[in-house]
Amino acid sequence: MNWYPILWLIAAIILALAELASVQLVSIWFALGAVVAMLASLLHISFYAQLVVFVVVSAAALAVTRPLVKKTLDVKKTRTNLDRTVGQTGVVETAVDNRLETGRVLVDGLSWSARSESGEPIEPGTTVEVARIEGVKLIVRRK
């Protein structure tokens, strides 16, 4: 009895399960190669020829389709509200003084704890720009 088709089927199932576990779009192409090698084994070609079929089909499928699939599935990074805050303009509500560790800035309707980028105090009512965010504090500069 020819056991090669069964072995290739088992290999294809194991590789497909590995792909389900990893979702890296690598194992699935080898599973496809194993299925084609299984079909080749049904034609009673030598095991070495089956191995060549497996390697060639797997490599070709990986090389041709993985970049296309990755591009299709590649999700653009969505900026969060926090990311959008950087670069926005705000108004100082309470004096920003790094020495006293005080200061609040109103940006886009939200009040944030703030520190000065330059280290110099900034008076209430001053228009500032958000330079970056450190923890939960906005680091601001005069606009």
From TrEMBL:
GO terms for cellular component: plasma membrane. It is found in: Membrane. It is a multi-pass membrane protein. Coiled coil: none annotated. It comes from the Bacteria. Its main location: membrane. This is NfeD family protein. InterPro entries: Membrane_assoc_protease, NA-bd_OB-fold, NfeD-like_C. The chain crosses the membrane at residues 6-23, 51-69. Keywords: Membrane, Transmembrane, Transmembrane helix. The lineage of its organism: Bacteria, Bacillati, Bacillota, Clostridia, Eubacteriales. Residues 83-142 form the NfeD-like C-terminal domain.
